[in-house]
Specification:
Elements lengths: L2 H106 L1
Length: 109
């Protein structure tokens, strides 16, 4: 083989290698770009899911607080009604006692 033929083959091999390197670099860039897009999608999906879970949690606790508030309100309304009933009974007893004392005082007068 002549030197020129060997040099030609070397140059052709170098050109093929450079083309392979160029293709590999393009594939690497595409893979990186795809990975970045996938990562952004994963982060976006995670954020959406996080917001959904946050809203569900807040709604759950709001409902729990509302139930507890209603239970406390019902309990206090019952206590007030019982207090009123005792007050009315005591008022009736007080009026009766005052009436008896008044009648007793009138009988002594």
């Amino acid at each position: 083989m002549e030197k020129t033929e060997i040099l030609k083959q070397i140059k052709e091999a170098e050109a093929r290698i450079e083309e392979m390197i160029k293709n590999a670099e393009e594939q690497r860039k595409k893979a990186v770009a795809n990975a970045k897009l996938e990562a952004k999608k994963i982060l976006s999906d995670a954020e959406v899911e996080s917001l959904k879970i946050k809203k569900e949690t807040i709604d759950k606790f709001k409902a729990l607080i509302e139930r507890e508030k209603e239970e406390i309100k019902a309990k206090k309304i019952k206590e007030i009604a019982e207090f009123e009933l005792k007050g009315k009974k005591n008022t009736e007893k007080a009026v009766e006692l005052l009436y008896k004392e008044f009648v007793g005082m009138m009988g002594h007068a």
